[in-house]
Amino acid sequence: MRQAILIIIAILLTTNCLMAKTITINLSEAIEKKMVTTEGVNISGDYMGKTMSLSVTNISQETLVIKVENGVIFKPEDPKNQPMVIAGEPTLIVPPTKKKSVDVYTFCGNAPRHCPGKDAKYSYGFKASDTLIGVLQFIKNYSLYDDLGQNAVWAITNNHSLSQIYDSQRESIAKDLLALVMRLTSREKPQYYSITKHEAIPDAPAYVPKTLKIIADFELRLEAPKVLTLGVFDASGKMIQSVFENQEFGALGHRFEVEFESADVQAGNYYIRLKEGEKVIKEQVVKVD
């Protein structure tokens, strides 16, 4: 008799377990349906990389398989700090009434705001636009959780110049990322690329509008040999950086790359000029912030 009762209890327990629901759901939907509560805490004093510990508490009666989708944006407790854009799409399995945590990749969602200090608190804000989510998916596919990815995010969140989506060590990937942002935003291809200053100093802006370097390509086909000079000129016409001077080139197609070291020059417009004597054959105006 006792053995029969134990068997019945075991069957009932097994049946209850089988009847218990497991729901797969995106984090933003689970929040909107009041199935979970969340909290984010900065763990690094930075804004790029795995900077946030995200805690999710399941307040529903079901086990939740939660996908932390790209583009979930967490707002700071301190309004001076940046909102954080979550990337990478980790998954959490959270039983009823339980709390689980995961370290997530983030980007700064508002360039002029301050970098958070370690232990800064965050709460759920909203879900990003489809445009930003599309960029974050590309970032996830190629693990671009660095300056290249951040510059693409700022091109969406702060309308930064597309010229900043550049990486000399990953030119092919950077060009593909740039092409995606151009397609999603209907913006034109930049005429040159720029490298700008990023900061990760708590209580200081992440983005300092200072151009450190400008990279431009010049392509030219000569019908006859010419003696050429290529350099960077200021508004007065003075050459401030030479690429080459009075160098002869044959009657062929030529491609020149200019790297203008702009960290120590004043903000303003500068002119990359290809000249034959005093005659300007080709010119590119560039802006230094």
Q: How many strand elements?
A: 16
Note poorly predicted spans.
6-19
The overall pLDDT, averaged over residues, is 92
Distance between the termini: 86 Å
Major sheet description: 6 strands, antiparallel, barrel
Percent of sequence in beta strands: 35-45%
Query: What is the number of independent domains?
Result: 2
Topology order in helix (H) and strand (E) letters: HEHEEEEEEEEHHHEEEEEEE
The helical percent reads: 10-25%
Please give the oligomerization state of what you see.
Answer: single chain
The Rg value, from CA coordinates, equals: 27 Å
Envelope shape: elongated
Sheet with most strands: strand arrangement? 2-3-8-6-5-9
- Secondary structure tally, helices: 5
Helix/strand/pairing category: alpha+beta
Q: Strands, helices and their partners?
A:
Elements: H1 2-19, E1 22-26, H2 27-32, E2 36-42, E3 49-58, E4 63-67, E5 72-76, E6 84-87, E7 91-94, E8 99-108, E9 121-127, H3 130-142, H4 147-157, H5 171-185, E10 193-198, E11 207-221, E12 226-233, E13 239-249, E14 253-261, E15 268-276, E16 279-288
Parallel strand pairs: 1-4
Antiparallel strand pairs: 2-3, 2-9, 3-8, 4-7, 5-6, 5-9, 6-8, 10-11, 11-14, 12-13, 12-15, 15-16
Helix pairs in contact: 3-4, 3-5, 4-5
